[in-house]
Design the sequence.
């Protein structure tokens, strides 16, 4: 499963590195890619091994805010998924 999560609080490229580092060490996450410019993280994960709320909690635990009720356009998400994961 692949989800795009909107994040608030990223102020520099090191923020994206911190988010990627934390998420990519979680069991069940295949790949996480954070983007500072779009303020989102794209996560490819196994929903049988880790839940979306657990992923969001990992993000908030390191000091970032998960933005709720903001939908990413399907076109933008598809373009980002294709570019990031080569799908």
Sequence:
């Amino acid at each position: 499963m692949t989800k795009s999560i909107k994040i608030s609080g990223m102020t520099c490229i090191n923020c994206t590195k911190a988010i990627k580092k934390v998420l990519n060490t979680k069991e069940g996450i295949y790949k996480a890619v954070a983007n500072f410019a779009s303020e989102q993280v794209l996560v490819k994960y196994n929903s049988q091994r880790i839940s979306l709320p657990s992923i969001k909690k990992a993000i908030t635990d390191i000091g970032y805010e998960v933005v709720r009720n903001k939908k990413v356009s399907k076109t933008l998400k598809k373009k980002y998924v294709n570019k990031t994961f080569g799908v």
